[in-house]
Amino acid sequence: MKSERxxxxxxxxxxxAGRGIGAAIARKLATMGATAVLCGRTxxxxxxxxxxxxxxxxxxxxxxxxxxxxxxVEAAAKRVESAFGRIDILVNNAGIGxxxxxxxxxxxxxxxxILNTNLRGVFYTIRAFAxxxxxxxxxxxxxxxxxxxxxxxxxxxxxxxxxxxxxxxxYSVAEELRGQNIRVxxxxxxxxxxxxxxxxxxxxxxxxxxxxxxxxxxMLVTQAPQSFVSEILLRPTQKP
Length: 240
Description:
Blueprint: E1 11-15, H1 20-31, E2 35-40, H2 43-55, E3 59-64, H3 70-84, E4 89-92, H4 108-136, E5 139-144, H5 157-177, E6 182-189, H6 210-221, E7 231-234
Parallel strand pairs: 1-2, 1-4, 2-3, 4-5, 5-6, 6-7
Helix pairs in contact: 1-2, 1-6, 3-4, 4-5
Protein backbone atom coordinates (compact mmCIF):
# COMPACT_ATOMS: atom_id res chain seq x y z
CA MET A 1 0.00 0.00 0.00
CA LYS A 2 1.47 3.33 -1.06
CA SER A 3 2.02 6.00 1.57
CA GLU A 4 -0.25 9.03 1.40
CA ARG A 5 2.81 11.11 2.27
CA UNK A 6 5.55 9.59 0.11
CA UNK A 7 7.86 12.59 0.50
CA UNK A 8 8.10 12.62 4.31
CA UNK A 9 11.54 13.86 5.44
CA UNK A 10 12.26 15.32 1.98
CA UNK A 11 13.05 18.99 1.31
CA UNK A 12 11.75 20.69 -1.82
CA UNK A 13 12.81 24.10 -3.13
CA UNK A 14 10.25 25.88 -5.31
CA UNK A 15 11.14 29.16 -7.02
CA UNK A 16 8.38 31.58 -7.89
CA ALA A 17 6.29 29.97 -5.14
CA GLY A 18 4.18 33.02 -4.34
CA ARG A 19 1.46 32.53 -6.91
CA GLY A 20 0.17 30.55 -9.87
CA ILE A 21 1.98 27.37 -10.84
CA GLY A 22 4.66 27.74 -8.16
CA ALA A 23 2.12 28.06 -5.36
CA ALA A 24 0.17 25.05 -6.63
CA ILE A 25 3.35 22.96 -6.81
CA ALA A 26 4.37 24.01 -3.30
CA ARG A 27 0.97 23.04 -1.91
CA LYS A 28 1.08 19.68 -3.69
CA LEU A 29 4.57 18.82 -2.44
CA ALA A 30 3.63 19.82 1.11
CA THR A 31 0.56 17.56 1.04
CA MET A 32 2.88 14.75 -0.05
CA GLY A 33 4.92 15.28 3.11
CA ALA A 34 7.84 17.39 1.90
CA THR A 35 9.00 20.54 3.59
CA ALA A 36 8.29 23.14 0.92
CA VAL A 37 10.94 25.87 0.84
CA LEU A 38 9.22 28.82 -0.80
CA CYS A 39 11.48 31.11 -2.80
CA GLY A 40 10.53 34.35 -4.49
CA ARG A 41 11.05 38.09 -4.54
CA THR A 42 7.77 39.12 -2.86
CA UNK A 43 7.55 37.97 0.75
CA UNK A 44 3.85 38.81 1.10
CA UNK A 45 2.98 36.43 -1.74
CA UNK A 46 5.14 33.69 -0.23
CA UNK A 47 3.39 34.16 3.10
CA UNK A 48 0.03 33.54 1.40
CA UNK A 49 1.34 30.22 0.06
CA UNK A 50 2.78 29.32 3.45
CA UNK A 51 -0.55 30.05 5.12
CA UNK A 52 -2.39 27.76 2.69
CA UNK A 53 0.14 25.00 3.38
CA UNK A 54 -0.23 25.43 7.15
CA UNK A 55 -4.00 25.13 6.89
CA UNK A 56 -3.55 21.67 5.39
CA UNK A 57 -1.06 20.67 8.12
CA UNK A 58 1.90 20.93 5.75
CA UNK A 59 5.39 22.28 6.44
CA UNK A 60 7.02 25.21 4.70
CA UNK A 61 9.84 27.70 5.02
CA UNK A 62 10.13 31.09 3.34
CA UNK A 63 13.34 32.34 1.76
CA UNK A 64 13.27 35.65 -0.08
CA UNK A 65 15.34 35.06 -3.21
CA UNK A 66 15.82 36.74 -6.58
CA UNK A 67 16.93 34.11 -9.10
CA UNK A 68 18.45 36.76 -11.36
CA UNK A 69 21.02 37.59 -8.66
CA UNK A 70 23.68 34.95 -8.13
CA UNK A 71 24.50 36.19 -4.62
CA UNK A 72 20.84 35.88 -3.62
CA VAL A 73 20.64 32.32 -4.91
CA GLU A 74 23.90 31.30 -3.24
CA ALA A 75 22.69 32.76 0.07
CA ALA A 76 19.47 30.75 -0.23
CA ALA A 77 21.45 27.56 -0.85
CA LYS A 78 23.61 28.18 2.20
CA ARG A 79 20.54 28.75 4.33
CA VAL A 80 18.94 25.52 3.11
CA GLU A 81 22.11 23.55 3.78
CA SER A 82 22.40 25.04 7.25
CA ALA A 83 18.74 24.50 8.16
CA PHE A 84 18.13 21.10 6.58
CA GLY A 85 21.46 19.67 5.44
CA ARG A 86 19.84 18.33 2.28
CA ILE A 87 17.73 19.07 -0.77
CA ASP A 88 15.72 16.37 -2.50
CA ILE A 89 13.68 18.32 -5.05
CA LEU A 90 14.46 21.55 -6.90
CA VAL A 91 11.60 23.06 -8.91
CA ASN A 92 12.70 25.88 -11.19
CA ASN A 93 9.41 27.64 -11.75
CA ALA A 94 10.22 31.36 -11.47
CA GLY A 95 9.59 33.05 -14.79
CA ILE A 96 8.19 36.08 -16.52
CA GLY A 97 6.33 36.53 -19.79
CA UNK A 98 6.97 38.75 -22.74
CA UNK A 99 4.23 38.93 -25.35
CA UNK A 100 4.29 42.58 -26.36
CA UNK A 101 5.09 42.51 -30.07
CA UNK A 102 7.67 41.55 -32.69
CA UNK A 103 11.26 40.98 -31.63
CA UNK A 104 12.64 43.92 -33.61
CA UNK A 105 10.56 46.25 -31.44
CA UNK A 106 11.61 44.70 -28.13
CA UNK A 107 13.76 46.99 -25.92
CA UNK A 108 17.11 45.40 -25.02
CA UNK A 109 16.40 45.69 -21.30
CA UNK A 110 13.21 43.65 -21.75
CA UNK A 111 15.21 40.94 -23.52
CA UNK A 112 17.70 40.90 -20.64
CA UNK A 113 14.95 40.68 -18.03
CA ILE A 114 13.21 37.75 -19.74
CA LEU A 115 16.36 35.75 -20.43
CA ASN A 116 17.88 36.49 -17.02
CA THR A 117 14.79 35.29 -15.16
CA ASN A 118 13.73 32.35 -17.31
CA LEU A 119 17.12 30.90 -18.23
CA ARG A 120 20.06 32.42 -16.35
CA GLY A 121 18.17 32.03 -13.07
CA VAL A 122 17.89 28.27 -13.63
CA PHE A 123 21.65 28.08 -14.20
CA TYR A 124 22.19 29.91 -10.91
CA THR A 125 19.89 27.60 -8.92
CA ILE A 126 21.30 24.39 -10.38
CA ARG A 127 24.82 25.64 -9.77
CA ALA A 128 23.95 26.42 -6.14
CA PHE A 129 21.77 23.46 -5.21
CA ALA A 130 22.92 20.51 -7.35
CA UNK A 131 26.12 19.96 -5.31
CA UNK A 132 23.95 19.03 -2.29
CA UNK A 133 22.20 16.42 -4.43
CA UNK A 134 25.51 15.11 -5.77
CA UNK A 135 26.75 14.77 -2.21
CA UNK A 136 23.65 12.77 -1.26
CA UNK A 137 23.65 10.72 -4.45
CA UNK A 138 20.01 11.42 -5.27
CA UNK A 139 17.55 14.13 -6.20
CA UNK A 140 15.05 15.56 -8.65
CA UNK A 141 15.45 18.77 -10.65
CA UNK A 142 12.28 19.80 -12.46
CA UNK A 143 12.21 22.81 -14.76
CA UNK A 144 8.92 24.43 -15.69
CA UNK A 145 9.12 25.37 -19.33
CA UNK A 146 6.36 25.88 -21.91
CA UNK A 147 5.06 24.58 -25.21
CA UNK A 148 6.47 27.89 -26.44
CA UNK A 149 9.80 26.09 -26.06
CA UNK A 150 8.68 23.57 -28.68
CA UNK A 151 6.70 25.72 -31.12
CA UNK A 152 6.87 29.13 -32.75
CA UNK A 153 5.45 32.01 -30.71
CA UNK A 154 5.01 35.17 -32.82
CA UNK A 155 5.18 38.36 -30.72
CA UNK A 156 6.77 36.38 -27.92
CA UNK A 157 10.14 35.48 -29.45
CA UNK A 158 12.22 36.37 -26.39
CA UNK A 159 9.99 34.29 -24.13
CA UNK A 160 10.11 31.40 -26.62
CA UNK A 161 13.91 31.70 -26.87
CA UNK A 162 14.21 31.48 -23.08
CA UNK A 163 12.08 28.33 -23.01
CA UNK A 164 13.81 26.66 -25.98
CA UNK A 165 17.05 27.38 -24.14
CA UNK A 166 15.64 25.98 -20.91
CA UNK A 167 14.64 22.76 -22.66
CA UNK A 168 18.14 22.34 -24.11
CA UNK A 169 19.69 23.07 -20.74
CA UNK A 170 17.43 20.47 -19.11
CA TYR A 171 18.27 17.68 -21.56
CA SER A 172 21.99 18.36 -21.22
CA VAL A 173 22.04 18.60 -17.42
CA ALA A 174 20.01 15.38 -17.26
CA GLU A 175 22.86 13.60 -19.04
CA GLU A 176 25.45 15.21 -16.78
CA LEU A 177 23.70 14.15 -13.56
CA ARG A 178 21.98 10.86 -14.30
CA GLY A 179 25.10 8.96 -13.25
CA GLN A 180 24.77 10.62 -9.84
CA ASN A 181 21.22 9.23 -9.48
CA ILE A 182 19.79 12.73 -10.03
CA ARG A 183 16.81 12.91 -12.38
CA VAL A 184 16.36 16.12 -14.37
CA UNK A 185 13.05 16.69 -16.12
CA UNK A 186 11.13 19.45 -17.87
CA UNK A 187 7.38 20.12 -17.94
CA UNK A 188 6.12 22.07 -20.96
CA UNK A 189 2.53 23.24 -20.38
CA UNK A 190 0.35 25.00 -22.90
CA UNK A 191 -1.62 28.06 -21.83
CA UNK A 192 -2.16 28.01 -18.07
CA UNK A 193 -4.75 30.14 -16.32
CA UNK A 194 -2.35 32.41 -14.41
CA UNK A 195 -1.36 36.06 -14.43
CA UNK A 196 1.58 35.22 -16.70
CA UNK A 197 -0.25 33.82 -19.72
CA UNK A 198 -1.94 36.03 -22.32
CA UNK A 199 -5.69 35.44 -22.06
CA UNK A 200 -6.97 37.48 -25.00
CA UNK A 201 -9.66 35.50 -26.79
CA UNK A 202 -9.20 32.43 -24.58
CA UNK A 203 -11.67 30.76 -22.25
CA UNK A 204 -9.96 30.49 -18.83
CA UNK A 205 -12.13 27.50 -17.94
CA UNK A 206 -10.71 25.54 -20.89
CA UNK A 207 -7.12 26.51 -20.14
CA UNK A 208 -4.82 24.38 -18.04
CA UNK A 209 -4.98 25.18 -14.33
CA UNK A 210 -1.93 25.49 -12.05
CA UNK A 211 -3.01 22.30 -10.30
CA UNK A 212 -2.66 20.39 -13.60
CA UNK A 213 1.04 21.24 -13.69
CA UNK A 214 1.38 20.28 -10.03
CA UNK A 215 -0.19 16.89 -10.80
CA UNK A 216 2.34 16.28 -13.58
CA UNK A 217 5.13 17.09 -11.17
CA UNK A 218 3.68 14.69 -8.61
CA MET A 219 4.07 11.90 -11.16
CA LEU A 220 7.72 12.82 -11.74
CA VAL A 221 8.76 12.77 -8.08
CA THR A 222 7.05 9.44 -7.36
CA GLN A 223 8.56 7.41 -10.20
CA ALA A 224 10.17 4.07 -9.54
CA PRO A 225 13.95 4.45 -9.15
CA GLN A 226 14.95 2.59 -12.31
CA SER A 227 13.46 5.15 -14.72
CA PHE A 228 12.70 8.79 -15.23
CA VAL A 229 10.46 10.82 -17.52
CA SER A 230 12.67 13.44 -19.11
CA GLU A 231 9.89 15.57 -20.61
CA ILE A 232 6.17 16.14 -20.19
CA LEU A 233 4.13 18.02 -22.79
CA LEU A 234 0.93 19.15 -21.13
CA ARG A 235 -2.06 20.35 -23.15
CA PRO A 236 -5.67 21.21 -22.29
CA THR A 237 -8.30 18.71 -23.42
CA GLN A 238 -10.12 21.41 -25.38
CA LYS A 239 -8.39 24.26 -27.16
CA PRO A 240 -9.17 27.41 -25.21
